[in-house]
Backbone:
């Protein structure tokens, strides 16, 4: 499949319009993966992490297909292949790019200067790419705070969301949310009202305004902020895609604040992602008589969320972190993870290519590889660096 | 002073009317101490704990006065003596008893069957006695939950307080509070409304309705519950006595719930006592826009209070504890503390007298003394048991 795509002149020209790397096989392969796999497909993520996107595509669709090892992994992989095969149509890949180009969306992939390293904390669930309408640079600017909550918000909740988002945006924070009615909308609007920066993650394609009633709001966000999605243009939001989208909000935010949430609100899913990523989590309390606050109180009780009642208290959530929003330890971990994601066990990868894939400076890559070599995790071959095979590693 | 009091026939007759032990020197000495010392006077508490109430009185007012050891303790003690001397008037002691008798108040002292062992956790700040109008037995009945909060409560706060107190009282819990306007009053009233049990701790004498507007409410509480104070009848509530009273609410409650509290509310003082006593502490959240909830949110943020939004969640606060509301470990600790409080380093105390003072069964005292003797903490003399002097122990 990848070879057919790479020889598709129309596709390569279109990619050139949405991404500076143009016809790089990795970029085209990632676009293909975003068409083939649902958001957060961990099997695809693992495969791409191990082999690189293009090589993973060849592995899956190449003839003769590389032998799949027996056992549990093979079944998971076989299921993945049958899942992905159902969507293996070069026209879909071409359409994903041309539709994006038509709405002036930009593509960013891991390794790009605009790629938000924060998302790499998602490991195998890191998105394969992001489509962005607006300013991709906002995704790396800090501090970034996710302000999310119930669609069925109360006037109280929308007021608090607006106050927090407005104050924080006015002081330079990027407000991250999901573009939904209720709390999300109030947060985005308040950020725009103070000429602040705001990012909306959509569950569907960035060419679709969802919800419809937020068509104008999303256009305004795209004008000065960023409207982002990991799914191709034309793709409709589904329940699964909403849940998957939530992990991106939680991962991009250096802190997540839930303003209002029902007992089973989707915002608790975002909060759960934030907590499992080790991101500080805040919850705004409300009247115990308000169903719209029940989820927030649940977060205080069950998720050990911090009670936040004003902007200063929200700011405290991330102020324990270093200026760029990650502790020094996390930066090292993330860099190692990204470096290891950039190389495989099969064939050696040259240092400059590792640097490009991982989005790290070549000097930094050299230093990290030195450490990893001493630890027996990587080894140098004639072709470049590769991971040392370890017991239990997947083929 | 104690000898003058013991030979006062009118006093002894009056004590007989308020307490079964009648003319027991310890009981009369405790009444004297309650007149001499302000609530929570730790110096008096330590002295009484070391020597017993009557012996402590003799030590302080006897002629010739036992020599005070040099150093810091002596100054603390000298200051205490000058403080207590200012109030050393046998007529005040007599009035404390006759005034209490006139309003049918009952006296309870440590060792009485009704004495709430929970208060012994206050150590040197354990009250020397309690005056009770109503049913002293309620003080030992469990579960007991303290429901407190702002006088300047909102309609929301009073509603929540009433709902929690009503539900809990209906299911058999004793509602402990401070008899004040606002949250306290709402909690007491709700308990009465379901024919439940409720205890009001006053900062002034039990013969005085404070606040005046709660005269009828306090009368109703005394009818079926208990109105309690550690200060003599006739004594007015002061700022200090309010703060001291709060420790009794916190200590008697097996859990404390703050329903509404301003940023500097006295309820935070009660909450602080509960936390330092290791009692579970709950706070009811409210709108972040409500000043009456600011203190509760502070408790959630700074005191690690548990967010409670309904009766079941309040009940969870103490359900981790054993049926009588104290963990087995706490019971042992408290018994040891009380036993050690009942003996001094100076002269031996017979086992039966220790049992009486500590409010423990003689068999239990024998067992505990055996353990403490093995640990080198107590020793047996001809006169009875005494603490072994240790480096740094006060004279």
Residues:
């Amino acid at each position: 499949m990848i070879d057919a795509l790479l020889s598709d002149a129309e596709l390569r020209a279109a990619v050139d319009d949405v991404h500076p790397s143009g016809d790089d096989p990795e970029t085209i392969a990632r676009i293909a993966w975003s068409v083939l796999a649902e958001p957060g497909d961990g099997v695809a993520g693992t495969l791409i992490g191990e082999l690189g996107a293009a090589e993973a595509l060849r592995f899956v669709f190449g003839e003769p297909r590389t032998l799949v090892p027996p056992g549990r992994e093979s079944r998971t992989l076989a299921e993945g292949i049958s899942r992905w095969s159902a969507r293996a149509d070069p026209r879909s890949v071409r359409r994903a790019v041309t539709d994006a180009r038509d709405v002036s969306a930009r593509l960013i992939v891991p390794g790009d200067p605009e790629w938000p390293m924060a998302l790499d904390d998602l490991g195998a669930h890191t998105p394969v790419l992001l489509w962005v309408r607006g300013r991709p640079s906002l995704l790396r600017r800090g501090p970034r705070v996710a302000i999310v909550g119930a669609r069925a918000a109360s006037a109280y909740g929308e007021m608090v969301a607006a106050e927090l988002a407005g104050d924080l945006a006015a002081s330079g924070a990027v407000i991250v949310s999901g573009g939904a009615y209720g709390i999300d909308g109030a947060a985005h609007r308040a950020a725009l009202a103070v000429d602040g920066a705001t990012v909306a993650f959509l569950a569907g394609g960035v060419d679709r305004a969802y919800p419809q009633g937020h068509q104008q709001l999303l256009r305004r966000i795209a004008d000065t902020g960023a409207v982002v999605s990991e799914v191709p243009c034309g793709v409709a939001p589904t329940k699964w895609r909403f849940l998957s989208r939530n992990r991106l909000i939680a991962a991009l935010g250096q802190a997540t604040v839930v303003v209002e949430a029902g007992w089973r609100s989707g915002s608790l899913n975002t909060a759960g992602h934030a907590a499992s990523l080790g991101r500080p989590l805040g919850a705004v309390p409300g009247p115990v008589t308000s169903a719209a606050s029940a989820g927030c109180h649940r977060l205080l009780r069950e998720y050990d969320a911090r009670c936040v009642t004003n902007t200063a208290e929200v700011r405290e959530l991330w102020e324990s972190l270093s200026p760029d929003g990650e502790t020094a330890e996390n930066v090292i971990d993330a860099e190692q993870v990204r470096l290891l994601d950039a190389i495989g066990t099969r064939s050696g990868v040259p240092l400059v290519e590792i640097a490009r894939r991982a989005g790290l400076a070549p000097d930094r890559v050299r230093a990290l590889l030195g450490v990893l070599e001493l630890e027996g995790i990587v080894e140098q071959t004639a072709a470049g660096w590769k991971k040392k095979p370890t017991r239990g590693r997947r083929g």
